[in-house]
From TrEMBL:
Protein name: DUF1062 domain-containing protein
Domain of life per record: Bacteria
């Protein structure tokens, strides 16, 4: 017989960006969980807005640049327009988005919690013939070891 346990690692915040602020001496920006959309004719630019941790000066990280509005699914476009937090977190944790913007993340700044079911020690000790397995799920990649 086999018993399987699942542990879920939940990020509590998005990673800070390592970037020098033009208005103060800070070198970190936090994600505001908001998008900025700017359309010109049939093209659209979309940015994820970051704020300086000290002076709140804005930095716009490019998500889409000069793309046709038809090339974005209606569902994604509506989520961008509504400042969907889950979607903002997906882009904030996206290594590809950071690479395209030549931005570096401070992945050590991500705090996290672990959700799991308590396993009584007696159950572990008495499981002579049983095999225990643990599955660890993490929605975002942030170099957790």
């Amino acid at each position: 017989m086999s018993i399987e346990y699942t542990w879920v690692i939940k990020a509590k915040n998005t990673p800070l960006l390592k970037k020098k602020c033009n208005h103060c001496d800070s070198e970190r920006f936090h994600c505001s969980d908001k998008f900025r959309l700017n359309a010109q004719k049939k093209n659209i630019d979309i940015w994820l807005i970051y704020r300086c941790v000290k002076c709140h000066h804005r930095y716009n990280m490019t998500v889409f640049s000069r793309i046709r509005t038809e090339s974005i699914s209606k569902e994604i476009f509506n989520r961008l327009s509504a400042n969907d937090t889950d979607l903002a977190w997906e882009y904030a944790f996206s290594r590809e988005t950071r690479r395209k913007n030549n931005a570096e993340a401070d992945l050590d700044s991500v705090e996290y919690g672990i959700q799991f079911d308590e396993v009584p020690i007696e159950q572990i000790i008495s499981g002579d013939d049983e095999m225990m397995s643990f599955t660890i799920k993490c929605l975002f990649e942030f170099n957790l070891r």
